[in-house]
C-alpha cells in the first residue's frame, strides 16, 4: 500500500497501483520481500520523485529510498496507524503505531525536504501472487504553524493581523454589554407580576366585602 503527496492527480500504474515517474512524495508500506537482502519486511520507506526517475522494482525501491524502517505492521495486535509530519521546506517525519495503543514509534526523520506547493493526497495498493486485506479506516489532516520570535502565537505573519493593510475595523466585544438591559427587563417583569398578584388579592378582598355588605 502507498500514501502519495504528489503534484499530479492519481492515475493507475505499476508502483503500488499508481503511476511511475511521479513528482512529489511516496510512502510505501511494503509487506512482501522480493529482492532486498539485509532488510526485514514489512518495510516502510519514503521516496521523493522528480517526475523522471523510475521506481526500482527489482530491489524493492532500494535505490530510490529517502528514508525508511522495518515495522511489524502486518497482523498487528492493535490498529496500525501512521502519522506524517511535514514542515514546508524543512523536514519530514513519519511515526507508526503498531505495538501498543497511543504508543508512537519514530520510523524516520528527513531534513531539507521540499514537496510541491500544490499537491494531491492519495492512497493506492497493488498485490502479486500473495495478498493481504488492508482497510483505511480514517484519515485526518491538520495545518501546522511554527512559532517565531515575533510572538504572534505561531500564526502566519499576515494572518489575523488587524493592523495590516486593508484590515477592516470592527467593534470591540464587551462581555458586560447587554447585561444591564437584560437585568432591567427582568426587574420590570417581576414588578408586573407582583402588581398582578396585588390586584388579584385586592379584587378578591373587595368581592368578599361586597358579599358581606349584602347581609
UniProtKB/TrEMBL annotation:
Superkingdom assignment: Eukaryota
GO molecular function terms attached to this record: D-mannose binding
Keywords from the UniProt entry: Membrane, Signal, Transmembrane, Transmembrane helix
Signal in keyword set: yes
The L-type lectin-like domain, residue ranges: 1-144
UniProt membrane topology term: Single-pass type I membrane protein
Gene3D superfamilies: 2.60.120.200
Pfam families listed in its UniProt record: Lectin_leg-like
Gene Ontology biological process: endoplasmic reticulum to Golgi vesicle-mediated transport
Protein name according to UniProt: L-type lectin-like domain-containing protein
Species this chain originates from: Trichoglossum hirsutum
Amino acid at each position: 500500500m502507498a500514501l502519495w503527496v504528489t503534484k499530479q492527480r492519481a492515475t493507475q500504474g505499476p508502483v503500488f497501483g499508481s503511476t511511475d515517474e511521479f513528482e512529489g512524495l511516496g510512502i510505501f508500506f511494503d509487506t512482501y520481500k522480493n529482492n532486498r537482502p539485509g532488510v526485514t519486511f514489512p518495510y516502510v520507506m519514503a521516496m521523493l520523485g522528480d517526475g523522471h526517475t523510475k521506481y526500482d522494482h527489482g530491489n524493492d525501491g532500494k535505490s530510490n529510498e529517502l528514508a525508511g524502517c522495518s515495522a511489524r505492521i502486518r497482523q498487528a495486535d492493535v490498529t496500525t496507524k501512521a502519522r506524517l509530519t511535514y514542515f514546508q521546506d524543512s523536514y519530514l517525519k513519519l511515526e507508526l503505531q503498531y505495538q501498543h495503543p497511543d504508543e508512537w514509534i519514530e520510523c524516520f526523520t528527513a531534513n531539507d525536504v521540499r514537496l510541491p506547493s500544490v499537491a494531491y493526497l492519495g492512497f493506492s495498493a497493488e498485490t502479486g501472487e500473495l495478498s493481504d486485506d488492508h482497510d483505511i479506516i480514517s484519515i485526518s489532516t491538520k495545518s501546522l504553524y511554527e512559532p517565531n520570535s515575533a510572538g504572534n502565537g505561531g500564526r502566519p505573519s499576515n494572518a489575523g493581523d488587524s493592523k495590516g493593510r486593508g484590515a477592516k475595523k470592527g467593534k470591540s466585544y464587551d462581555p458586560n454589554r447587554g447585561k444591564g438591559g437584560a437585568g432591567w427587563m427582568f426587574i420590570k417583569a417581576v414588578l408586573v407580576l407582583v402588581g398582578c398578584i396585588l390586584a388579584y388579592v385586592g379584587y378578591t378582598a373587595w368581592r368578599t366585602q361586597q358579599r358581606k355588605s349584602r347581609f
